[in-house]
Specification:
By secondary structure, this protein is mainly beta. The protein contains 1 helix and 4 strands; from the N terminus they run ββαββ.
């Protein structure tokens, strides 16, 4: 994967095979978890307020 620049943002494209493996679709909300030398991407889990 390459990091690309789109005006004032940087974009990383997630390969379709990875999206399918994770069960993610267009519109899936994710969160970036920065580490010292890596960034983890995790699906944002929305909790219902019941």
């Amino acid at each position: 994967m390459k990091i690309q620049q789109n005006k004032r943002q940087f974009v990383v494209t997630i390969p379709i095979d990875v999206m399918r493996l994770l069960g993610w679709n267009k519109g899936t909300e994710v969160i970036f978890l920065p580490g010292e030398k890596e960034i983890k991407i995790k699906k944002l889990e929305v909790q219902n307020a019941s």
